Amino acid sequence: MDKVTVVGAGHVGATAAQYIAEKNLADVVLIDIVDGLPQGKALDLMEAAPVNMHDRKLVGTNDYADTKGSDIIVITAGIARKPGMSRDDLLKTNANIVRTVAQETFKHSPDAIYIVVTNPLDVMTHLVQKTTKLDSKKVIGMAGVLDSARFQTFIGMETGFSVEDIRAMVLGGHGDLMVPLTRLATVNGIPISELLPQAKIDEMVDRTRNGGAEIVKLLKSGSAYYAPGASVAHMVEAILRDKNRLLPCAVLPQGEYGLKDVYIGLPAVLGREGLKKIVEIKLTEEEKEALHGSAKSIKENIDLMNELLVAV
Length: 312
Ligand code: APR
Hints:
alpha/beta, L-2-Hydroxyisocaproate Dehydrogenase, Chain A, domain 2, 2 domains, six-stranded parallel β-sheet, 9 helices, binds adenosine-5-diphosphoribose
């Protein structure tokens, strides 16, 4: 029986657990630092199983021993930025949390594939790989699926067509410098430029870039979790079912796109062993420049994180 551990039983973690169980993908261990929280949510989800008709087991715990032998570890543990908190403070706090989580989970599941969700995403994914020293094929960040889903949602809203027919990919870092590939976005193969004026497309790109912030502003406290949770489950499915899905994910390029030593969103083929392959497509000069700009900003944040972690 496949086993997925979700670290962090907060909004994103619990929602990911729900989708993973309800899509009948795996048994789930939900673990958190707060006593009772993962236990309560896991039990509540178990009690939904007879209604939703699945036999997946969900266990809530504060003990890493219960995560033993997981096939996939999803890391959502961390804190959100609070008013008055600097970006550096957030980076330092989440880096310390994620590093501990990576160490603890790795002790019990040295063969697991990691899906990292905690922000700042690309930097945290880098940290998990460095901490576990796993082959980078086994450490993947979740951002591109979410950013692309948001872009696809907006294309659906603007064109009125079913999202089932809409395909679009967002590359680059998970932040202001993400790179939505508008040129390759289609409605069942028809480029969106045939269906929408450029000004509308620019507006959608902007909305995608600020997709997370738009939700935060509406919720007033906390950040998005349904689409992030669904995106995690989508990647879990691609991996456990060895689907050969081509999804934008934060991965470590080995020279592809002229990039190295930096986790960043690229078209990735996912399967049972994790990242099977980074697919290199020809980008326009403008897209290349945007991707490299995004990589530069992630590298600067990795350097900053290393300084902050040393200073602890
Ligand atoms: N070990 C385990 N769990 C921890 C630890 C730790 N050291 N530190 C914090 N947590 C838990 C918290 O107790 C909380 O339950 O992580 C959970 C985070 O949940 P939320 O605060 O609800 O945050 P959420 O909205 O789920 O976002 C989690 O995902 O999308 C990203 O930006 C988001 O970085 C954030 C992460």
